[in-house]
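Example for tutorial group B:
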């Protein structure tokens, strides 16, 4: 199912789980991702995806991006218990921390819950087998 934005009538604060995941993604993101870390304290959730995934869009101190162009700050993947492959990324637009996007990489499910950071691997990193949820230490 395609992403379809549903704006919230009343913006809300991020849940503890959402904040933790975004913090982790910024800490483990691309060069420059940590520049957006201070904005997280000012972030509110203003939209979610209507497809059923756990994707959310942010306003920073009440400001939303004016341009659609985005830059990915951190891009990871994980497998759930059923072996379905999902992606998680944090992105910015107009120099504002703009959202957390979760999607199905293999089309086998909808990421309706947030992944634990311990399950995340950099996007494109190999798994040892299709059902593995993490790469085993060497």
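The residue assignment follows.
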């Amino acid at each position: 199912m395609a992403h379809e934005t549903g704006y919230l009538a009343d913006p809300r604060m991020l849940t503890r789980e959402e904040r933790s995941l975004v913090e982790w993604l910024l800490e483990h993101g691309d060069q420059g991702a940590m520049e957006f870390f201070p904005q997280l304290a000012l972030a509110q959730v203003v939209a979610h995806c209507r497809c059923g995934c756990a994707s959310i869009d942010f306003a920073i101190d009440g400001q939303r991006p004016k341009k659609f162009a985005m830059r990915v700050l951190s891009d990871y993947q994980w497998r759930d218990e059923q072996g379905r492959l999902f992606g998680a990324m944090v992105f910015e637009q107009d120099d504002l921390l703009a959202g957390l996007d979760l999607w199905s990489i293999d089309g086998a499910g909808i990421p309706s819950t947030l992944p634990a950071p311990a399950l995340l691997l950099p996007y494109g990193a190999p798994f040892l087998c299709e059902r593995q949820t993490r790469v085993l230490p060497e």
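The first strand starts at residue 5 and ends at 13. Compare this with the pattern of hydrophobic and polar residues in the output above.
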